[in-house]
Design goal:
Helix content is 46%, strand content 15%. It has 428 residues and is α/β, with parallel strands linked by helices. The strands form two sheets. It has a seven-stranded mixed sheet with strand order 10-9-8-7-11-12-13, with helices on both faces. Strands 1, 2, 3, 4, 5 and 6 form a six-stranded mixed sheet that branches. Strand 7, helix 8 and strand 8 form a beta-alpha-beta unit. Helix 4 packs across helix 15. It is globular and about 55 Å long. The chain binds glutamic acid (GLU). Glutamic acid (GLU) binds next to helix 13.
């Protein structure tokens, strides 16, 4: 079903993310004149596992949890992608994110396929012990389809290096030996990579630098608004200032935001968020409150949606005044909004390119685990920069050549690579 048909049948803009990924793929398939069988293969995940598992809670009761892992496409290598612990996790959400991982790994040309996983749970109400038991129980069930050569999870929404550490430990117990390469985003003492923590935002900053160069924008003193203040948003504030020389004028999270045209100190903002759980009331240094919606519509040089999906829709797309939209979140812009932004001359750096820094450094982590030899920070940084800048240039060039928006161009680059691998292997 197309997004337009879904809109008609729902009567509201309540998008199914997986249907959105298929509509996006269809647009690229048309431009590439993709063989119909190959197109059909790329529209669906090749493999998925659904599990239900028991966890003993602190009060002695046993609760059942639902978990998923989708291995979308492994033509180019083992599937790769994060694990989300979110109360509203659905299989279609995981399918969509697994599809985007496939295009993400391909567009930055790392030898991995795409996967994603999730557990429907609310980490805000789980104790540390319960979180550990959920993490371990997930791996006990899912471990049979994971492995450095098969499928490699990583952190995503509401999971972190500690969760990865429990998981790698559980998997190693199952194998009877340490197997650090089964998961990335691990803490440094367990085979983690330098710079993995800030890699998503760092890669995004390198993309913004390239985009600004292409558009003739000086990033020194450029204004930047950040929607979402989790891992990606927090590091975007720090690195936006450090790498780009930008002034962070607005930040928001799910509870509300702040605006200060003179600039917000990212470190103080993070301290406040850690202490109170939200950025909303951090007004001590002169910032004013701003709603999430108004933040998106600010007249800034750079807007970085870094939180949830479906934030820029046909309702607000016409009001976006940023010159560059750097999508650090997965899926913040719906297809109709894409066309409006493109027509209005807003330069969008699409999510699976803009936020690929995380998986690039995850790939470096896998390489380091396989070698048992670890790189210094400067090496990781230089290799990340080279990889993502090359991907940016390939997408930018393709968009200019074809006269299409950057998302369609990114799909063309990525889909072509996956399609070639599929063809060579004789699958279609
Ligand atoms: N969860 C991150 C993403 O969406 C990273 C995935 C990974 O490192 O495997 O890109």
């Amino acid at each position: 079903m197309t997004v337009q048909k879904m809109l008609a049948s729902n009567g509201k803009e309540d998008f199914n993310l997986f249907a959105i990924t298929q509509v996006q793929l269809d647009a690229a398939a048309e431009v590439l004149e993709l063989d119909p069988a190959l197109h059909a293969l790329l529209r669906e995940p090749v493999r998925e596992m659904h599990i239900t598992f028991p966890v003993r809670m602190d009060d002695g009761t046993v609760q059942m949890f639902r978990g998923f892992r989708v291995q979308y496409n492994d033509a180019r290598g083992p599937t790769k992608g994060g694990l989300r612990f979110h109360p509203n996790e659905t299989i279609d959400m995981v399918r969509a994110l697994a599809a985007w991982m496939t295009w993400k790994c391909a567009v930055v040309d790392i030898p991995l396929g795409g996967g994603k996983g999730g557990v429907a749970c609310n980490t805000k109400i789980l104790s540390k012990g319960e979180l550990e038991r959920v993490s371990r129980a997930y791996v006990r069930q899912m471990g049979r389809i994971l492995g450095p050569e098969m499928d490699v999870p990583a952190p995503d929404m509401y999971t972190n290096p500690q969760v990865m550490a429990w998981m790698v430990d559980e998997y190693s117990v199952m194998q009877g030996h340490n197997d650090f390469g089964v998961i990335t985003g691990k803490p440094l003492p367990l085979g983690g990579s330098k710079l993995r923590n800030d890699a998503t935002a760092r890669g995004g900053m390198y993309c913004i630098r390239e985009a600004a160069n292409a558009l003739g924008i000086n990033t020194q003193g450029a204004t930047m608004a950040i929607q979402g203040f989790g891992n990606a948003g927090q590091y975007a504030a720090i690195l936006g200032q450090k790498i780009l020389g930008a002034t962070i004028v607005a930040i928001s999270d799910s509870k509300g935001g702040i605006y200060d045209p003179n600039g917000i100190n990212p470190f103080h903002a993070i301290e406040h968020k850690l202490a109170t759980g939200t950025i909303r009331d951090f007004t001590a240094e002169g910032a004013e409150p701003i709603s999430n919606q108004d933040l998106l519509e600010l007249d800034v040089d750079i807007l970085a949606p870094s939180a949830m999906e479906n934030m820029i829709t046909s309702r607000n797309a016409d009001h976006i005044r940023a010159r560059i939209v750097a999508e650090l979140a997965n899926g913040p812009t719906v297809p109709e909004a894409d066309n409006v932004l493109y027509q209005n001359g807003v330069y969008v750096i699409p999510d699976f390119l803009c936020n690929a820094g995380g998986v690039i450094v995850s790939y470096f982590e896998m390489v380091q685990n396989a070698y048992g030899y670890y790189w210094d920070e400067a090496t990781v940084d230089a290799r990340l920069d080279a990889k993502i800048a090359a991907a940016f240039q390939a997408v930018h060039k393709r968009a200019q050549e074809l006269g299409v928006n950057n998302r369609v161009a990114a799909y063309c680059v990525a889909v072509e690579r996956v399609a070639e691998a599929v063809r060579l292997r004789g699958w279609a």
